[in-house]
Amino acid sequence: NLSPIPLAVRSTCPYCGVGCGVTAMPLPDGAIAIAGDASHPANRGRLCVKGAALGETTSLEGRLLHPALREDGVLRQASWDEALDRVAGGLRAIIDEHGPDAVALYVSGQLLTEDYYVANKLMKGYIGSANIDTNSRLCMSSAVAGHKRAFGADLVPGCYEDFDLADMVVLVGSNTAWCHPILFQRIARLKEARPDVRIVVIDPRRTATCELADLHLPVKPGTDVWLFNGLLSYLARAGVRDAAFIEAHTNGLEPALDAAQVDCSDPLAVARHCRVEPGDLMAFYGGFAATTKVITAFSQGVNQSSAGTDKVNSIINCHLLTGRIGQPGMGPFSITGQPNAMGGREVGGLANMLAAHMDLDNPQHRDTVQTFWSSPRMAAKGGLKAVDLFKAIEEGSVKAVWVIATNPMVSMPDANQVQRALEKCELVVVSDIIASTDTNAFADVLLPALGWGEKDGTVTNSERLISRQRAFLPAPGEARADWRILADVARRLGFDGFDFAGAHEVFDEHARLSAFRNEGTQRRVFNLSGLCGLQAPDYDKLEPVQWPVRRGADGALEGSARLFADRRFAHADGKARFVATAPRAPANPVDPEYPLVLNTGRVRDQWHTMSRTGRAPRLADHTAESFIDMHPQDALLYGVREGELARVSSQWGAMVARVQHGGGIARGSVFVPIHWNGQTASDARVGTVVNPVVDPVSGEPEFKHTPVQVERF
Ligand code: SF4
Fold it and tell me: Which residues form the 4Fe-4S Mo/W bis-MGD-type domain (predicted)?
């Protein structure tokens, strides 16, 4: 008798926002065979090294398998009933004594949409506070804020196919080659097929992405608004504007142009300020002016700034001026960092948003969501954004925090402040898949969550594509889905509305809310009406689809590759907005004590704080330990040598790593990767060094510009 050959399960990679489809098959020896899903539109079977190594990251070594409670300073294993009672009882006592704003959730772009939805429903509609923020605040919130200002809602106009159709691709603040490799390969194939396509990379570092570039503009850190205001001004002077589009479909051009012309009307002055060659700047401006099908894709180098939202809008302004939006092969494109940063945004994952792209500060939206949920209350104002949330914990106004699927002790700026906050917090609950992390060390309650390959749900990638993550492994130990843990606590708090039989029921409620009182409103753009009423078998079979999603007359799902083809935006008047963006320097300038600019980011083969990718030996081959990348002349100047340990310090903290050269860094800057945590031999958390200044609109921290000094260790 032959055993049946097991079928591979189709799922989605849990790392970056490209959102590649994978197939996974458990083998008899316990290994997992991973391959790219040839039918998935985001990657057509291709995987980068991180995705290909997924099978090496699913072992149970180091996993958190049982709930645990801290008693007399020591964690002991507990039953689920004990742990859930402690969480619900602790939250209830604090809410009763200090009000709903005294408790908070801090969640993650690693959560599935269903987890995110239940967390937001519990916090905003039942506890009645908007103190729920997410680590997406650290990577995407400036793009969200920029989209909302320009389009009226957080809407990504284009899709990956536009990269195939473009005649010019501008990559701003994005090391696409390392951080979004499959998208980079797509651009590389475009360049190979059509060598005349122009690739421009705008980045202070000469990264691996520059290998594809016809033109690299190594701008001075923090000068993007000068560069794009200069472009706006140049385009306007050159008459490269879509007058009919501007007249019929936009507002606010004159103030935006006036703001751009104050400092940026002279390209020579812009080149001087951005520290780029005038000829290179003019080549970029001239190329942009002459090319209709141009995509400007941006990522953390734009977003992670105290002027991040203005940087986003300065880019969008250039596309609105030229009408290059909503059509094939053109548009501004936000490259999402995490696999489900977009899904979190759909359900109101940020402290200043409501579910289904509604706004907390809009009374009608609050009423719509509360009516749909039949919930007892509704948060009346935006909650605390990540940096302010941990400040409020340290100050004592927030007394309980539930951290889910993220490691703020490593990933937040001014990570020493996060430690002070967690030490002071009356109740720290952590849901995670790993037993020992820097954040777990401060937990009063640890809750074991399902990980990738064990849980079911959906994620949304950078191009609004909803894909299924599917379980192919049994739940280890007593681990549970995050949405279920949240629902269990909600019921213990005495709340109705959390009796979901499975992830499909959560998804259905999310889809129905998107369509509730939607027709004829500006919210119609975010609409999942075609996905309402999915029963478990259809949810399980759901194919990748881009929202908005409707059903055609034949009952088939109809997704939407692009938005704004009809030139209707989500502001009340249906028009897009130019936003006046006055350039401003990074918040903290260098000085004689801290003369270098610290830039942080990812390396090719690691992900976030390495709790998963750190398990795959072959991923460590690329970069074995943290490092301080600096220019050889700066190393000479500051008395440090390649291969030796050095201390990088700021007024917020210090860390130690080995000096290296060769990362394409310009003089005056250093680069340190974000991944290494405090669980290594030396505490290599760069978050302890990063300044906690945030963008005033988005609340996104300035990870790309902290004044530091480097000295021998
Ligand atoms: Fe995963 Fe991103 Fe690599 Fe695709 S490009 S396999 S989504 S890490």
Answer: 6-62
277 plus 382 within the same structural domain? no
Assess contact for 629 and 672: CB atoms under 8 A. yes
Give the number of domains in the chain.
4
560 within some domain? no
Give me ligand 1 centre to Cα 50, in Å.
Answer: 7
Which ipTM did the prediction report? 1.00
Do 438 and 538 lie in one domain? The reply is: yes
Q: Of 335, 367, 401, which residue constitutes the final position of a domain?
A: 335
DSSP string, 248-270: HHEE-HHHHHHHHHHHHS-HHHH
Pick the atom of ligand 1 nearest to 18's CA.
7
Task: Return the best residue to mutate from 10, 13, 175, 335 for the ligand 1 pocket (most ligand atoms within 8 A of CB).
Answer: 13
Q: Which atom of ligand 1 is nearest to the CA of 339?
A: 7
pLDDT tens, position by position, 314-359: 999 999 999 999 999 999 999 987 878 788 888 988 998 999 999 9
Q: Which two tokens stand for residue 592?
A: 């004689």
Residue 45: give its domain's CATH number.
Answer: 3.30.200.210
Contact 571, 144 (CB under 8 A): no
- Which helix H or strand E contains 167, and what residues bound it? none
* 17: containing domain: 9-57
Q: pLDDT at position 6, please?
A: 63
For residue 461, give the ligand 1 atom closest to its CA. Answer: 7
Which CATH number goes with the domain that contains 427?
3.40.50.740
Ligand 1, CB within 6 Å, residue ranges: 13, 15-16, 18-20, 43, 47-48, 50-51, 180-182
Expressed in angstroms and rounded, the spacing between residue 341 Cα and the centre of ligand 1 is 14
Residue 565, in any domain of the structure: no
From the list 543, 457, 549, 463, the residue with the least C-alpha distance to 37 is 543
Compute the C-alpha angle 511/515/517, nearest 5°: 145
0.80 cut: is pTM over it?
yes
N- to C-terminal Cα separation, the chain:
66
For the CA atoms of 371, 376, 382, 385, the dihedral, rounded to the nearest 10 degrees, stands at: -120
Atom of ligand 1 nearest to the CA of 16: 2
